[in-house]
Design a protein that fits this description.
It is built from five helices and nine strands. It starts with 25 loop residues before the first strand and ends in a 7-residue tail after the last strand. Helix 3 links the parallel strand 4 and strand 5. The protein has helices at 31-49, 63-79, 131-143, 186-189, 211-216; strands spanning 26-29, 55-59, 85-87, 119-127, 148-156, 168-172, 179-184, 193-198, 218-219. The strands form two sheets. The chain has a five-stranded parallel sheet, with helices on both faces.
Length: 226
């Protein structure tokens, strides 16, 4: 009798989805870098506007508000007096409202003197597509008529979708659309840093920052905060 044939064990199945290593963020600006950048921006604002008399600072929530406060402190240290500082929520002026999940409204705080005839310096953490700044310009138009509007950002990462350019930039940071830039500030995150990391699965649609991203201080790598 022929010996019984013993079937060979089936090969182990291989998962079709291989594990993907999580991208490790790298620091592109540390606390001292951020401090120097903000000091330089404050001096550039004073030089360009020949002092602080006409200047009003408006931070775009969330982290633009913290940056505006710091720049205001630096201007006060030079001028010996404070400069009017507030915040400007642009949520209801965004061109993607109704296309994205509902966003929590942030706080708008216009200084008592208003903005009519003033030089308004908008301050944000990251400039990307330019759509947040376009919304901010629309919001300002409903509040008053400033003499001029200028823009200061901690990071300009490129990839503009609108003809908008910052007047004051802490750092120009060339990025790809598959990268995420994250700004951490002590006021919100316990430490100061700007981080960049690859994002494993980029969204190919035109991106934008969600309210959750704004709370965490991050900008979508394929979309922008500003």
């Amino acid at each position: 009798m022929s010996p019984a044939l013993v079937p060979e064990p089936a090969p182990e199945s291989v998962s079709e989805t291989a594990p993907v290593a999580k991208a490790v963020p790298r620091t592109v600006l540390d606390a001292s870098d951020i401090s120097r950048a903000l000091t330089r921006i404050a001096h550039e604002i004073l030089e360009r506007n020949r002092g602080a008399d006409p200047v009003v600072l408006l931070g775009i929530p969330t982290r633009g508000v913290g940056l505006a406060s710091r720049i205001s402190d630096r201007i006060a240290a030079v001028e010996g007096r404070s400069v009017p500082t507030g915040s400007l929520d642009v949520t209801m002026y965004r061109d993607d409202i109704g296309l994205k999940p509902a966003r929590a409204l942030e706080h708008t705080d216009i200084p008592p003197g208003g903005i009519d005839g003033k030089v308004v310096v908008l301050i944000d953490d990251v400039l990307f597509s330019g759509r947040t700044i376009r919304a901010a310009l629309d919001a300002i138009g409903d509040i008053g008529r400033p003499r001029a509007v200028q823009l200061a950002v901690l990071v300009d990462r490129g990839h503009r979708e609108l003809p908008i350019r910052a007047d004051y930039v802490g750092k120009n940071l060339p990025t790809s659309l598959v990268e995420r830039v994250t700004v951490h500030l002590t006021e919100y995150d316990g430490a100061d840093a700007v981080l960049i990391a690859d994002q494993t699965h980029p969204d190919k649609s035109r991106p934008d920052r969600t309210s959750a991203d704004k709370k965490s201080g991050s900008t979508d790598k394929t979309g922008a905060s500003a």
